[in-house]
Amino acid sequence: MSNRTIAAIATPNAPGGIGTIRISGENAVEIAAKVFKPVSGKNLCDFKGYTAAFGGVYDNGEKIDEAVCLVFRAPKSYTGEDVCEISCHGGLYITKRALRAVLDAGAAPAEAGEFTKRAFLNGKIDLAGSESVMALIGASGKQAAAAALNTLDGNLSKKIRECADGIIGVCASLAAWVDYPDEDIEDISAAQMLPVFEKTRADLAQIVRRYDCGRAVTDGVDTVIVGKPNVGKSTLMNMLTGFERSIVTDIAGTTRDVVEERIMLGEIILRVADTAGIRETENVVENMGVNLAKRRLERAELALAVFDTSVPLNSDDLDIIEQCKAKKSVAILNKADLPAAADRAVIENAFPFTVELSASTGAGRDRLEQAVAEIMMTNEFDPAAACLTSERQRQCCIRAMSHIDEAIAAIQGGVTLDAVNVCADCAIDALLELTGEKATAAVVDEVFSRFCVGK
Ligand code: GDP
Question: Which residue has the higher pLDDT, 71 or 389?
């Protein structure tokens, strides 16, 4: 690893009460001492770790600000290296000029995420923990922040390590059997292996499910409102957002583009797209909108399928029912304030959740809230449990689960034990990639490239 000393502004690039320049590396204190002079007259280089001094920040001998400098000594710092943090007044000009002085004194500009990357490389934090730093910074609510902090505390890595250890135990017995076939080593039996694989798989599945539930609370659910023209999609969108966002008319085919909005439905953030009504049409422009709507439906995680219950269902409705079959979807029986004419049994049989609603009066919104919470399983989201904080981590879990499935199938199919061993090894690799114990340099670089400078 490079031993250059790095520096960056660690506070936001905006005027504020305090602006902090963070310096990390072998020469951090020496460099800070060239720029920062304590009023006590002491030399910063003589300071122990966990000490602070009040003094002046100087650029080319000119005093540019008053500041406090914190000194941390390796390994007891964020990065595990010597670190100085100079906190001056948070003016944009002042912080930039102080950074310039630090760079002139010998520091190199830090890359995005480089401080946390050093913390990872110096063993201060694991890869999953590093990612939770970004999740914590980006958290938009209480539950999301609690989940990120929980991962930063190491709860996820501990749980993943437990999963890996179970499989490593099986592998150790398998390896002895594979490596020394002539020795009189007792065969590890299916009855011993299967419970370990099955429990690990169940634990991982629960972690992934919790992440999926959590995403509805942290990032929001990609949602699409579908339905043939005039069933009340735009009215529903307006009801959910609380203001006139979409054009509402009673001329079929007036919503031709996709309108997107973030709305809170109870605890859940829905990233909703209201689309052109899906129906067979000759109109070229409307047709483009319809195609867009169909693609949007395929991509969306949740579909709110709207039906007008005041008129009988037609083939366009049946089409929508068909297209929603493979999706998480809630059927909305709209215009419940009007006399019913649609055969609701057809809809109820096709959807796991059906909600009676009047988009124009708002009646039934609480039932919709309840149905969406149930289908997204947000009730199962527990920020205090081991939480994944990135798609990368989720992919590692999914990979581990699929290798465990292969191992289980191999055992049940009576395949030789070395095949089971290979599958188990792959599962372990995926889990250790998650915590970073076995992540390649490319994976590590990719993780930190998403960080901000100064973190
Ligand atoms: P879209 O084409 O599916 O977006 O449908 P709109 O939202 O434009 O609504 C079509 C017509 O149905 C408008 O005249 C709305 O006022 C009316 N409408 C929508 N929802 C309701 C409802 O719940 N009750 C009643 N009575 N009319 C509704």
Answer: 71
Check whether 43 has a pLDDT greater than 70: yes
Asked whether 10 and 77 are in contact (CB, 8 A), the reply is: no
pLDDT band at 187 (very low <50, low <70, confident <90, very high): low
| Any atom of ligand 1 within 6 Å of the Cβ of 249 | yes
What DSSP string describes 83-101?
EEEEEEEE-HHHHHHHHHH
Q: Please state, as a whole number, how many other Cβ atoms lie within 10 Å of the Cβ of residue 397.
A: 21
Q: Determine which residue's CA is closest to atom 12 belonging to ligand 1.
A: 232
Q: What ligand 1 atom has the least distance to the C-alpha of 338?
A: 26
**Ligand 1: does its nearest atom lie under 6 Å from the Cβ of 233?**
yes
The finding on whether 337 has its CB within 6 A of some atom of ligand 1 is yes
CA of 232 from ligand 1 middle (Å) equals: 4
Q: Which residues contact 363 (CB under 8 A, 6 or more apart)?
A: 336, 337, 357
Question: What residue ranges define each of the domains in the chain, with the CATH number in brackets?
Answer: 6-125 (3.30.1360.120), 132-215+390-436 (1.20.120.430), 221-380 (3.40.50.300)
The alpha carbon of residue 413 and the mean position of all alpha carbons in its chain are separated, in whole angstroms, by 37
Q: What is the DSSP letter of 122?
A: T
Index of the ligand 1 atom closest to the CA of residue 228: 3
273, β-bridge pairs: 224, 260
Q: What is the pLDDT of residue 266?
A: 79
Using the mean position of ligand 1's atoms as its centre, give its distance from the Cα of residue 417 in Å.
63
Is residue 230 within 6 Å of ligand 1 at its C-beta? yes
User: Is the Cβ atom of 238 under 6 angstroms away from ligand 1?
Assistant: no
Among 230, 236, 332, 334, the mutation site with the greatest number of ligand 1 atoms within 8 A of its Cβ is: 230
Give residue 235 CA to ligand 1 midpoint distance, Å.
6
Instruction: Say which residues have a Cβ less than 8 Å from residue 454's Cβ, sequence separation at least 6.
Output: 8, 9, 10, 11, 22, 110, 115
Cα distances from 354 to residues 25, 241, 264, 315, in angstroms, run 60, 21, 20, 19
Strand partners of residue 305: 226, 331
Q: Reduced to 3 states, what is the DSSP secondary structure of residue 351?
A: coil
Find out whether 82 and 25 touch, Cβ atoms under 8 Å: yes
Binning the chain into helix, strand and coil, the percentages to the nearest 5 are 45, 20, 35
Residue 329's pLDDT band (cuts 50, 70, 90): very high
